[in-house]
């Protein structure tokens, strides 16, 4: 990308590529893309693949991706919940409950959402 377009690829570019591959069902291609990145992938890149695994019901790859995410960002409850939801959708209840228990034991909380509006400017 740098040589051809004179653009240094950043995390947003990587997330977009993984997201596009994931949405089209090319999950293993997305995984290989991440593994071949020259820089250490940010959690958002792996998160895009985890989301695609969830959408396509790819539990085995989703589990592998989630384990990588837990290693680099163990305080993000969203990764645990995504994998738990994947397990629930597949009827793998024992693992789903175990992940929910981990979230409770670690006292992980989802940050509250908020919106901002600009009045009068």
Sequence-ordered SSE layout with sheet pairings:
Layout: H1 2-5, H2 11-23, H3 27-35, H4 43-56, H5 59-72, H6 77-89, H7 93-105
Largest sheet: none
Shape: globular
Structural class: mainly alpha
Let me know the CATH homologous superfamily: Tetratricopeptide repeat domain
What fold name stands as the CATH topology? Serine Threonine Protein Phosphatase 5, Tetratricopeptide repeat
Number of helices: 7
Number of strands: 0
For the record, the CATH class is: Mainly Alpha
Helix content: 55-70%
What is the straight-line distance between the termini? 40 Å
Radius of gyration: 17 Å
- What is the arithmetic mean of pLDDT? 92
* Known CATH architecture: Alpha Horseshoe
Strand content: under 5%
Order of helices and strands: HHHHHHH
Uncertain runs: none
Domains (count) = 1
């Amino acid at each position: 990308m740098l040589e051809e377009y004179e653009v240094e690829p950043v995390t947003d570019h990587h997330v977009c590529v993984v997201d596009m591959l994931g949405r089209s069902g090319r999950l293993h291609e997305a995984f290989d893309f991440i593994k071949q990145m020259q820089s250490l992938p940010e959690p958002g890149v792996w998160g895009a693949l985890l989301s695609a695994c969830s959408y396509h019901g790819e539990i085995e790859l989703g589990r592998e991706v989630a384990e990588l995410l837990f290693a680099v960002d163990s305080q993000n409850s969203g990764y645990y919940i995504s994998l738990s939801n994947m397990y629930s959708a597949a009827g793998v209840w024992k693992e789903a409950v175990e992940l929910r228990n981990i979230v409770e034991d670690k006292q992980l909380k989802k940050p509250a959402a908020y919106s901002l509006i600009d009045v009068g400017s």
